[in-house]
Amino acid sequence: MIVAEDISKSYNGEYCLRGVSLHVHRGEFVSVMGKSGSGKTSLVEILAGVRTADGGKVRVCGEDVFSLSPSALARFRRTKLGAVYQSFGLISTLTAADNILLPLTMERVPRGQSVKKLNSLAERLGISRCLCKYPDDLSGGQRQRIAIARALIYSPEVLLLDEPTGSLDELNTKNVLNLIREINRATGITVLQITHSRSAAEYGDRILTLEDGKIVQ
Q1: 4, 10, 128, 169: most buried, per Cβ within 10 A?
Q2: CATH number, domain 2-216, options 2.60.40.10, 3.40.190.290, 3.40.50.300, 3.40.50.720
Q3: pLDDT tens for residues 8-41?
């Protein structure tokens, strides 16, 4: 489901990724661990098509990510790929509901169908009472769940998580990771989590380590 081969990436002549290769099978929950500055965020952004690599190949859901046109890549990311980043990436001027519905709105899914899906997902995530609020009025744990809901609203095949619990306390960390694990098992969605935390990484089926710009077992 996710295939990266010999990925390299440098900034100002300094390499953060040096020939990274990894395979994640359909339905797996894989954690990639690494210290701060090890290139974890660059890796997940490359897999998501947000950032280009200096070299290598990436295939996600059978698509050669680097060969897609900008419009095709944008649609691919809305419909096939869900991503949750450390900063949540919520739009402050939109309600929680409208933030979650954004991928469906951009794909012109009928509003009635969208709201039905939203209500079902919100109930599952325990955020039904947050839908009319704006991001600035929500707690960190609530914003994280809103971001996860937005990533899942189109029923993507792959979910990419960049330090999904980095700003959460211990209780919310456990709640969020248990929820992601439950969704992974219930739906068969493929999950790749980037984290610096051993305890968070252990929620995955496999743990890989990013060290000196390379994946080590």
Answers
A1: 4
A2: 3.40.50.300
A3: 999 988 889 999 999 999 999 999 998 877 888 8
